[in-house]
Amino acid sequence: MDAAHHDSPAEPALRGFSLLRDRVPTDMAARVASRFAGTVQDQRDDAVATGRGLPERAVETLLMERADRDRLRAAFDRSPFLTVELGEGADEAAAPLDDWSGAPAADDPGLPGFYLSLTTGTAYGLQCPVLVCDELVRRGVLEPQRRSNVELCLHEAVANAIVHGNLGLSSAVKGEPGGYRRFSEMMRDRLGDPAVTRRRLDIFCRWNGRCIAIAVVDQGGGFDTALAPATTGNKARSGRGFVFMRTLASRVTVTDGGRCTVLQFDR
Amino acid sequence: MDFKTTNTVDATEVWLTGRLEFTDHDRLRDIVELVEQSRARRFVIDMSKLDFIDSAGLGMLLILQEETESRNIKMIVRHPLGDVKRSIELARLGEIITIEF
Fold it and tell me: How far is CA A16 from CA A38, A83, A114, B22, in A?
């Protein structure tokens, strides 16, 4: 996350904020609140969807058991700092210990931003880069005419995090004869494994007057960052995602052994 | 991504709509089956209604190129626009695939 914070001084204190309890078991909400030094508010589901009856300043965190496009748009409309999909089985004893938290990333309360944490099962096919870019435009951070390039870069980082990170699939398979069929089958297998689809995909956006930084974090096995291609042969079946990112973003930094990609765009 | 197909004596045409991306590997299998069944000399992929293509989608085009080449079928990517055209140009795909802009 270093690259995402290079413009701001380090702040050791966590940001204190309120939690909106949305169909989250009481004990879990309490543990989350404790973790973030926040407070818990009960809120009826329909109020979350419509935004009715919410104290505007209190809603900086939204938790939901299951995310979809409409629920995420409704959540973003509340301008929370942290939006977390807890995922199915959220009331199991182990779930609160899942490492979904944005705590390490939320160490600078001075910079505006937002943090979205989804399960892989939801993120796959959700086109969350579209939602995130919509939100950046809505908050006046991203100019509409620059949106297309930012969205492509974010899409590539998210695709890498899902496919190569959390699903643990290597593109090398595609290079074999008929490999795309095998790749497709492997992807379907992994998407059917709850242990895999529970892995988290986190997208953390922060900005200041000069720069937008978007970190994409997965929980996969990482990769040798020295192998991330700056260029690729034009007949290669993979590797273009990093080329797109390096071409279109102002800076691309890969940290945490390949589990975190930080895209920066000068404003 | 969705697609529909039209067949003429000369060409099999596949009309793509929506987004061609990393979640579409199953659709690639469907399109490769069209190549395998085609008796035409040309295989046209019309992109005029395609909104978005990512690096995985471009890789799929290269696989289709190999599948058509191995059957002596000429593949043509037709009318990429907007963001799709941008991605194809960034990847310099026109150097190895016939593209009609």
Answer: 5, 15, 14, 38
